[in-house]
Amino acid sequence: MGQKMDDLTRIPVSHCPKVFIQRDYSNGTQLSFLNKYPHELEGKVDAQTFQTTVSKLNSMYEEAETLSGMTYCESCLACLTAYLSYICMKTHYEKMLQKVSVYINEQNQNVYIPRGLMLIDPVERGLRVLEICVLSDSSAGR
């Protein structure tokens, strides 16, 4: 009833075609993904929307890996407690990965799923690739 996509054209996530956005190693091993628009997404989502999503993800990962006084204190506390402190608290990196996951879910609900696509959290792929599943064979009328 209020669905934007016909159930007959929907493909199960495990069997759907996938588009992989590779990591960008041009700045060393810093976690970021290539911002180049893949031709497989043409007609599904515009390049500006895709690039905005990837840029936001890259900036969130950059913030997660940034060293600060807080991260130094976390590390010192971990050493002093034989890393038992990590049982009681989440690290800055873990908190940022959680924010990335929330952002991906929001993007899926508001942008990608209505267009027949779905972003897969890079954590599920070992932070190696950003995976995009093509859920339908049409762009849901777009």
- Element-by-element helix/strand order: EHHHHEE
Number of strands: 3
* Anisotropy-based shape: elongated
What is the distance, rounded to the nearest whole angstrom, between the alpha carbons of the first and last residues?
19 Å
Helix content: 25-40%
> Which regions have little confidence, pLDDT < 50, spanning 5+ residues?
1-8
Task: Specify the biggest β-sheet.
Answer: 3 strands, antiparallel
Count of spatially separate domains: 1
Family: Belongs to the ERF4 family.
Membrane topology: Peripheral membrane protein
Domain Golgin subfamily A member 7/ERF4: 19-131
Subcellular location: Endoplasmic reticulum membrane
In short:
With 142 residues, the protein is an alpha+beta fold. 39% of the residues lie in helices and 11% in strands.
